[in-house]
Amino acid sequence: MIILTINNHYRTSSQFVGKLLLDDYSQGIGLDLRQYLQHPFNANVFVADRLAARLKTTPMSDNDLRDYLFSSHTSLYQAMPYMQVLSVGVDANGDYFGYRKNQADQSVLMERSDATQGALRIFDGRTLSANIVYQDSHYDPRVRPWYIPAFNREQPRWTDIYLDADEIGEVSLSAIAPVLVRGNVWGVVASDIKLTAFNRFLSKRQQKLGGALFIVDGEGRMIAHSGKDSPSNILQFPSITNNVVLNHTIKEISTNWPPEPEKLGKSFHFNITEQGQFYGTVKKITLPPPFQHEWYVVVALPDQLLLESLLSQQKISIYLVIAMSVIGLIIVYLIIRQLTRPLRDTAEAAAKLASGNLTYRINTPASLREIAILKEAFNNMSGKMQESFNALRQQIRQDNLTQLYTREGLVEQASGLRYHSPNTLVILGVNSFRDINDSLGQEGGDTLLCVIAQRLTDLADGSNMLIARVRGDEFAVLSPHTTNRTQSEALVNQLLSLFNRPVTIGNDDVLVDACAGVVFGYTYGDAIHESLQHAGWRSVKQNAVMRRCMSILKPVCKRGFKSSLGYCLSSIMPFSITNSSCSTSLSYA
């Protein structure tokens, strides 16, 4: 019995220590890989930004562009030897200029331009007078996997893995960044990392430990591994004949790929004849944006390495005496801990309740009647507090009379919106609403507001408009489908036309008029507060001859924003909408 206990202890301990070591090792690989990718990405963005700045001031000749790329490639390669290629594709006519490192660690020119008769040529030196080692007459950088994503999205990013179009045909991963000149994409700068460099990256970290280490994407394509040979093509779990541990590890995980989320971080083991037992794990690598691909790091380490620290501790007798002498205390401790567990959970639940978590419930079974009563009372109190909180929140977000959003509800809804184009915010106010209340009474005024709310709701039916009652006689309409001034004007006319029809209140038909304040621009998100303020209207003059309603609209103009016209106006651009002697002003931002 003692031998079985000792054996089980060592096996359990080895698995526990092995899991800790595997977790720590895979997390370290993830951290190193983030730094490994972040440096060339930042450098590529810097090169693209500097090139854009130069092009904005003075045009660059082909010689100037070659000199700029050569100096940038030389300086960056000294700091990051794994960054093999620095190049730029020009959108206007498909020109391509770049430098790469050859086997002699020298920079060689790659170019497609008028100087190369429109063909891609790779030289054995850094000038056009050097010998040509490769030529492609049909090469166009604008259709390459490293060009299209940056050009279409106009944002720096990483590409997926792809095959190079040169004479070697290696698998590469590129950091790409668009060169923006006066709002247009002039070209794309790319910095290539070869997968052979990834192999060296993993091999250095695996030399001291043995075992296997590789990186796989979500489709099961081998990105890199710690073996000597590089994945020279994009394969799904290729067979690596010269590395037994890698092959066994691949067979172990490739059956059900990608792994289910609950299996990530869990250890697996396998046995290799003459090499012993191996433990492994699969972890998902979290890489910072804009790197959007799902990569997994797979680690397998020998059992002997995991047990090394345990096998040196063979003082079985001492451990047995200590274990037998404290068994009684452990049993008593576990019993007391089990009895008092509901009390600890109740204290923890009270702390969560105090911090604002009203949905927390105590689910621990209670052995004692008194503790069970306390647990039930706490759960009832938490449920009632949650119901009260939900009811109060609903009163704040929704108007009791019209069932529309309140001002707070509109702000909450609009703060979470992120449209890709401008929109329109309209504030509608009923003229002389106090007189209507005085003549028809409070109930008649409420009926009038409900009818207006229903008309606005019917108008917005089936669209993405947000409608709210923001004040006693004021309503707000936020429409995302008005992307230009003409559409904004049409929307305001449509809203004001709702007041052309009389409202039946009791036995009376009441005809009311209204004024509208309008803001056109990016009126959602963080700008909703300022937009509501600027769209507010106020009657400023009234006499026996004429009543004029004016909406003073301040432009919501922030640096870096674009209107649908492509620029930001700094003055108010008015237009007139006639309805019951009422005019509005439109402010573009």
Number of domains: 4
Briefly, what CATH class of the largest domain? Alpha Beta
Q: pLDDT average, as an integer?
A: 76
CATH architecture of the largest domain: 2-Layer Sandwich
Poorly predicted regions: 538-589
The shape, in one word, is flat
Question: How many strands?
Answer: 24
CATH topology-level fold name of the largest domain: Alpha-Beta Plaits
Terminal Cα separation, in Å? 82 Å
- Rg result: 35 Å
What's the CATH H-level homologous superfamily of the largest domain? Reverse transcriptase/Diguanylate cyclase domain
Helix content: 40-55%
Account of the protein in words:
- This protein has 589 residues and is an alpha+beta fold.
- The longest helix has 56 residues.
- Strands 1, 2, 3, 4, 5, 6, 7, 8 and 9 form a nine-stranded antiparallel sheet that branches. Strands 11-10-14-13-12 form a five-stranded antiparallel sheet, with helices on both faces. Strands 16-17-15-20 form a four-stranded antiparallel sheet, with helices on both faces.
- The protein is flat.
- The chain contains twelve helices and 24 strands.
- The chain has four domains: 162 residues, PAS domain (Beta-Lactamase); 111 residues, Beta-Lactamase (2-Layer Sandwich), CATH 3.30.450; 77 residues, no CATH class; 180 residues, 2-Layer Sandwich (Alpha-Beta Plaits), CATH 3.30.70.270.
